[in-house]
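For the sake of transparency, this paper describes our internal protein records without simplification. The record that follows is passed on verbatim for readers who wish to inspect the format:
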Amino acid sequence: MSSHRPRRRFAQNFLVDRGVIRSIIGLVRPKKGEVVVEIGPGRGALTNGLVAGLERLVAVEIDRDLAAMLRERLGAKGLHLIEGDILEVDLGQVLRDEGGDRLLIVGNLPYNITAPLIFHFLAQADHIDRAVIMVQREVAQRLVARPGSKDYSLLSVLVGMRAEVEMRLQVGRHCFRPSPSVDSAVVELRFADGPRFPVEDAAYFGRVVRQAFGQRRKMLRNSLMGLNPEGGRDWLEGLGERADIELTRRPEELSIEEFIRLSDACTNLGEEAS
């Protein structure tokens, strides 16, 4: 297994620190009916321990050589390996195939697809109970950021609408081979059955948040204009009054609840997503 050379196109940085490996495995405590899915098992640093403690583990690996190695070594020990791109995997289908209730995602996420992968989880959040994932430390800081902080972002709001997030472990770059140029952290996401806060239109809420953070340095009165270009300043003024939010504020200052007020106000004003 050590003869495999890391491939840059797959952003392969293999976790080698045994203490960190044990700590992550310790966070994976599946409940009855939960199907554990490992993302990017690589050389099997986490996979070995997970297989040892589970009746069955599903893993998704894009590297065909590593997939072949893992299948040969662990296939008979309860490992179901899916060879392919996790961004193209239907997690709902995985759950149905395994006959479980919800998924428990675990893994060291490839740095080059971290944000798209988290959004992929959000799109299929109805099938996920928890995720214990290692990401770049700056991404972890965004996930747990609060309004008004420099790390508060689109990711903070959209993830916070569906999941509670907790920082569980700091992981230095020296814990990997080859060593990446950044440090990492393990976060735990606990998904709700639906939006964590009441909202009239969850899809439109997402549109409002994306519109606001698309021009995050601008005031809301400028960044939100794209929601209804024909409505002009009169529409914006009505939006601000209905939501009771001063539109001279910037998106990183608003809480999830305030974004909901904006979204609901838009919906009530009759401006539906196009």
About this structure: The chain is about 40% helix and 20% strand. Residues 6-10 have pLDDT under 50 and may be disordered. Residues 256-268 form the longest helix (13 residues).
